[in-house]
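Objective 1.3, modelling of assemblies. Example input:
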Amino acid sequence: MARVCSLSEAVAELVHDGDTVALEGFTHLIPFAAGHEVIRQRRRDLTLVRMTPDLIYDQMIGAGCAARLVFSWGGNPGVGSLHRMRDAVEHDWPRPLALEEYTHAAMANAYEAGAANLPFATFRGAPGSLASVHTHFRTVTCPFTGETLTAVRALRPDVAIVHAQAADREGHVLFRGIIGVQKEAVLAARRSLVTVEEIIDDVRAVADPNACVLPSWTVDAIAVVPRGAYPSYAYGYYARDNAFYRAWDKIARDRETFQAWIDEHVHAHRIDDRGRGALPE
Amino acid sequence: MYTPTELMTVAAARCLSDADVCFVGIGLPSAACNLARLTHAPRITLIYESGTIATRPDVLPLSIGDGDLCRTAWTTVSVPEFFRYWLQGGRVTVGFLGAAQIDRYANLNTTVIGEYARPATRLPGAGGAPEMAMSCREIFVILPQSKRAFVPTLDFLTSLGHGDGGEARARAGVATRGPTRVITDLCVMTPDEQTKELTVTSLHPGVSVTQVREATGWPVRVAEALSETPPPTAHELEVLRDLQRRTEAAHQGSQS
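Predicted structure (C-alpha cells):
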C-alpha cells in the first residue's frame, strides 16, 4: 500500500547514494520536481536510467549527482545538445560520467523484461557499433526457427520515480496521455515513488476500463506535487513550456550560468503547500 | 523565391502518399510529413515515437511528445507497444532519418564524432533510428549536403543502411529495403540497384554536378539520365510557410 508523504521525505527514504534510479516519462510527465529534490538532498554516485535524459538529467548530471548514465537518446528535443551531459562526457565536468547506451527499442524491451521478471529481452535489433562498445547487447538463436535475434539484458532499477496526473485516496495511480515506459519502469524497479498533480476520490470513477493504472500495492510512496512535471507537462493539467526548453540551451551552455540557475531555482526553491511546482510560473 | 531548405522539405514531402504509414522524426522530417498531409496526402498516417498514432498536429511539435500530438491522435500507445507491435510488427511503410554523418551506402552516424570513449563531439545517440532502419519498409534520409556530413568512413555506425553494399542487408537477415532515397539541399540520391552505392539521380534547380561533388567526401556517382528536381509550387510554399509561422508563434510561449 502506497504511503502518501512529502516529496522530501519520500526521496530521503527511497533514494540512496550509489543507487540505480530511473526517472521516467517519455517527453511527458517528466518528474522534474522529484529530480530537483534529489539535487537538493545532494545524492551522489547515482546510476541514472532514462530513455531520453532530457533537461532533468542535464540538471542532475551538471549538479554532480550521477556517476553513470543509462540512456538511448540524449538531446534537448527539437533544440540541440544537452550541454551539461556533453561537458561531463567530453571534459569530465563536474565529474566523469560513464555511459551505458542503448537504442530506444532495446531500452523499452529491457524495461519490459524487468517488469516481466525475465533476465533478458529479445527483439529485431541492429545495434551497429553499440554492440562492439557495450556488453549488454548479445545475440540469441530462436529455438524454433534458428533465426538470430538481438538480446538485451533486463533493466531492474533500485528505484523508479514517475509523475502522474492523479492518485486516489487508496493510493491507486492514474496516467493519461503519452504513457511512455512509466508502468514498465515502476514494475521493473525494487522501490518506487510517484509524484501526482492531485489526490482524487476514486480512480475507478474517472478512468476508462483500459486506462493506465498502477495499483496502490505496486507503489511505495506518493507525493502530491502540483506542476511537478514542469517544464514538461501533464496532459489535461498544463502544457509543455517549449519556450523554457529553448531557453535552457543558453542557460546550460555555460558552467557558471548553469550553477547560478541551479542555486536559484533548485537549491533556494522549496515546493510550497499551495502547489507551486518545481519552478516559478 | 525559396530557400534550399524549403526545396529539400518539399522534395521530401512529395515522396509520401495517402497510403503511407509514416514514422516521423523531429525537424525536417516532421515539416515534410505534415506538409504532405496538408497538401497532396491528407489521409497519410503519421506516427511519432511517443506512441501517438495517426496524429494531426496544428503546429509542428518541438518534441516528439508534445501534447498536441496526443490530443489529435486516434490513439496513444506505450513506447514498448509502439516499438514491438507497430514498428517491429511491420506496420510502418516509411521512416525519415537525419544524421550527422552518412557514407556512400547510406549507413548513418548520430552517436559520436571521434572516438566513442573520448569523443570530440558527443551527439544525442541512436534513439529509435536503428530499429526504424531495420523495420520500416523503406527509409528516406534527409540532410543538408557537405563534406563534413557525407564522409568516406563513419566514425560510428548507428543505423544500418546498405552495409558494405550489394546484398549486405539480406546477408544480415534484414528483409526491409533500407534507405531508398537521400534528399539533400543540392540533389536527390538513390542507391544503385546492384551495388547500392548512392548515385545522384536528380539535381535541384540551379545546382551543378561540380557543386555536389565538392560537397561529398567521396567521388560520388552521377546517373547518366540526370533529371532536375521540380521547384516548389506556390501552394506548397504557402502551406509550408504558414505551418512554420504558426509553429514559431506557438513555441514562443507555452503551448498545449
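The radius of gyration of chain B is 18 Å.
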